[in-house]
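Protein entry
_____________
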Amino acid sequence: MQLFEIDLIYLIYLLFSTLFAYVIKGIAGFGNTLLMTPLFSFILESKQITPVDLLLSIPINTFIILRDRLSFSLKIVIPLSILLLTGDIIGSMFLANTSDNILKIFLSILIIGIAIEMWTRPKKVYDKKPQPILLGIIGVLSGITAGIFGISVLLVAYISRTTTNRGEFRANLGFVFLVDNIFRLIYYSTLPNPIITHDSINMTLFLLPTVIIGIYIGVKIDHRLKEKTIKKIFIFLLISTGILLFVQNLFI
């Protein structure tokens, strides 16, 4: 779907969805794709959403790394990056060759599962010695979901358990995300059926000012909102959008 073919009401919906997603990104260092993808999925196809999210994520993740550049650990990010890239190849193949309806049903189940994991997750659990088997599973699965939807939330759960403060968490996550972004940008461009098109570039440019505003607002209110409040809102949105997306695509 080309940008000029989208109704005005849908364009406004995309702008507000993007703004909200990137306010959360500015606060937490993640969550933009997890919110933006299901919200966009109500009016766009997965193959239209993933490249736009990718193109928007590259400058934002670069900004986060530069802001918290002294906090990331190579021991954490290097093995995770390698595993993530392995899964990226598999996920990208699914994105290029799988029915959009099937992808969205899978996405809805994934989102609801993630919300439940966040809801039941212990408050503060740090494991400074990553378990190799668990690391491998999480890395590859995250790469697969990243290749399809741009979502690597399993990494969020893992890195949250191997870092001790907010800055370290954001820096490590941002570094791995950026490696994934650059790899997918190159890989998507080499696929027989191109995923990144002129339409996705135009949509990216259209949404970019909203992304910048969202990040700015998120950074400004980062220390003013309670983490527990943000978490509750985030989980509620994930569950509700996941259920709606599942119902919408189950009967198509």
DSSP finds ten helices and no strands in the chain. The first helix runs from residue 8 to 28. The chain has a mean pLDDT of 78. The CA atoms of residues 91 and 148 lie 5 Å apart.
